[in-house]
Design brief:
about 160 residues, mainly alpha, about 0% strand
Length: about 160
């Protein structure tokens, strides 16, 4: 993908729009037929959902601020949230906010939202990776080798680079 075609938002809008549309439909289904589309959640499950949403919000904001500052300075950010996952903004939504909302709202259909976001992410993220590799070269390749996309599991067993 050409450098000039990748905005500061990356592929985020292409992931967010269909995921948000599905989320709106899932929430409407729960409101329309709660006896079908909502489940009885234990108070602890709702509390865990609220905590996941709050943690995801913090990660999303921190990642967003860091990436906007780096974009404005034309720098590769690899510290803070980016030291844990390469795509903390997407990670916030896919692994924290959307699953948290499903638990918090006790919505069966909402459990599918993070899977939709994940599938779109996996389908489209190559655009951002190609742009970053072209822009930052070996520094990005080294970073990509060390840090996972959205799951914060350290890559300890790797050798080289």
């Amino acid at each position: 993908m050409a450098e000039s075609r990748l905005s500061r938002f990356g592929v985020g809008p292409v992931i967010a729009v269909p995921t948000a549309a599905y989320t709106a439909i899932a929430l409407a289904a729960g409101h329309w037929r709660p006896n079908i589309f909502l489940f009885s959640a234990l108070p602890a499950a709702r509390a865990v959902g609220a905590i996941l949403v709050a943690l995801g919000g913090v990660l999303w904001i921190a990642g967003g601020i860091a990436v906007m500052l780096a974009y404005n300075r034309d720098e590769l950010v690899t510290s803070g949230a980016f030291a844990v996952v390469r795509h903390p903004i997407y990670a916030a939504w896919i692994s924290l906010i959307l699953p948290g909302l499903a638990l918090w709202l006790a919505s069966w259909p909402m459990l599918l939202a993070p899977l939709i976001a994940w599938a779109l992410f996996k389908r489209l993220i190559h655009r951002e990776d190609e742009y970053l590799e072209k822009r930052f070269g070996q520094a990005y390749l080294n970073y990509r080798y060390r840090v996972n996309e959205v799951i914060p599991i350290p890559r300890l067993a790797r050798k080289g680079r």
